[in-house]
Amino acid sequence: MPMTQGNELRIVGFLCNWCSYGGADTAGVARAEQPTDLRIIRVPCSGRVDPLFIVKALLNGADGVLVSGCHPRDCHYSAGNFYARRRLEVLKRFLPALGIDDARFEYTWVSASEGQRWQQVVASFTSRVHALGEAPRLGDAKFSPKAAGTALPPPLRTLGTGKNAPLDSLKQAIKEKLPGLECVIGWQQGYDGAHTTPLFMRKTEDVDKLVWGPLNVANPAVYLPRFKGRKTGIVVKGCDARSVVELLQENLIAREDVTIFALPCEGTLDMARVNEKLGRYTTVGGIVRDEASVAITVDGREHSFGMAEYAQGKCRGCANPVAILADVTLGGAPEIHAGAPVPPELGLLDAMSLEERRTFWSAQMERCLRCYACRNACPMCVCRDYCVSDSRDPHWMTQEADVTQKLFFQTIHALHLAGRCTGCGECQRACPVGIPILALRQHIARTVEELFDNYKPGLDPAAVPPLLGYEMEEQNIHEREWK
Ligand code: FES
Fold first, then answer.
1. What is the Cα–Cα distance from 207 to 166, expressed in whole angstroms?
2. Is the beta carbon of 16 within 6 A of some atom in ligand 1?
3. Given ligand 1 and candidates 18, 83, 85, 107, which is best to mutate, with the most ligand atoms within 8 Å of its CB?
4. Which of 21, 67, 70 most suits a substitution to test ligand 1, by most atoms within 8 Å of the C-beta?
5. Is 162 in the pocket of ligand 1 (CB under 6 A)?
6. Which of 1, 293, 337, 386 could form a disulfide with 306 if both were Cys (CB 3.0 to 4.6 A apart)?
7. Domain residue ranges in the chain
8. How remote is the CA of residue 69 from the centroid of ligand 1, in Å?
9. 76 phi and psi, to 5 degrees?
């Protein structure tokens, strides 16, 4: 009698050719009784298993996914399973953020001689998935009214408007360095006084257009890789500087080519909420800043935006308002209070159950336009022409506008940024429909911190991002028991 008594579920197994596939074969040759739910896909090494294989399976109807490779130190390619172990552990802890029970995914190690262990693994995992039942489908989820908002945590520092920032001194410093640079990237007034756009300063008169303050929301580091190999300057806020450092960590730019100008950031406005409050208007009458708020007059009506209330969520937890790496830094450093506030977007996710997260993302993905603004604004999204969302070979995803495809794209983006995302929030800011996708990156960032000795991307130009390396003995990743 089959162990699942004819009620098979859809379980996908990715088995390394050299060990676990041999282990499954050994169990078969020994006629060890096994459940019949598992559909095995043979891969050259567990290191070949991209976490996206697993997410794609789970989003497209698999009830469970099992990955099995050679035991650590036994990999046929020396270190494939060491890399896999880090990636798969991060993925396992990330799945609940999507509303997927992490018990539906497991990874383990089985050697070719361990037929009995294979039997135990497959029987144990299958009965676990059976206890969970069929996986709920994303498209079946109904909108959750809980997807509204969450309380704002107190900021780590006093937020202000940069009213007294030494902008003139900064302009002077840029003018002095400009003859040796192709251009310096900063911000200028945008299509009206209430918005800014990137500024590429190539001539001295361009420098006079530079603006500074809470409207400088864009991260200019996104343009730096395009200037690779050319002498370029950049004006940064603290969070932008972390992106520059991460680009240096990944050799996407060279330190000797980049001149970094910095002022201490006092916070930036959440333009989605600002725009919502401003509503439709035709003319901007004026912008007035005091120490703690910005007053914007549109069509004769004045709207006040206090930084304590209208700053971006990421600014509340920012402990690096001053660039950690700069050639020219002007202005004093603000006092940082102790603490580690949970960002509002992540707090929103944390407050939900698995089912609520599923319904939340389903509702949010209904609104997604697939415009890829989130990808294009991301300074660490560097594949450009080779993005898997556009690729036909391999064909990772379709161009259909269904919620599964859209959430799969967001998951790909988030997983590609695991251990690399500096939390600048550009993905979310650029989203024209205001989907809080930063929460997915923040969820992974928290996992990376927990697993890899409090690692935060973009703080040390010499550090190796954790998912690009491994330890033979991981401090915080341990083999789970099979009972
Ligand atoms: Fe088996 Fe690498 S060859 S895990």
1. 14
2. yes
3. 18
4. 70
5. no
6. 293
7. 11-135, 167-329, 344-451
8. 5
9. -60, -25
Helix then strand then coil, in percent of the chain rounded to 5, is: 40, 15, 45
Residue 1's pLDDT is 39
Residue written as token pair 């162990």: 3
How confident is the model at residue 178, as a pLDDT?
Answer: 97
> Is the separation of the CB atoms in 219 and 301 below 8 Å?
no
CA nearest to 436, candidates 323, 272, 192: 272
What stretches in the chain show pLDDT beneath 50?
1-2, 145-147
> What's the pLDDT at 252?
94
- Amino acid identity at 100: I
Could you tell me if the CB of 81 is within 6 A of ligand 1?
A: yes
Compute the distance from residue 55 Cα to the ligand 1 centre, in Å. Answer: 21
CATH architecture, range 11-135:
3-Layer(aba) Sandwich (3.40)
- Token pair for residue 390? 């556009």
| pLDDT tens digit sequence for 410-434 | 999 999 999 999 999 999 999 999 9
Give the pLDDT score at 439: 95
Contacts of 212 (CB under 8 A, 6+ apart): 162, 165, 167, 170, 187, 263
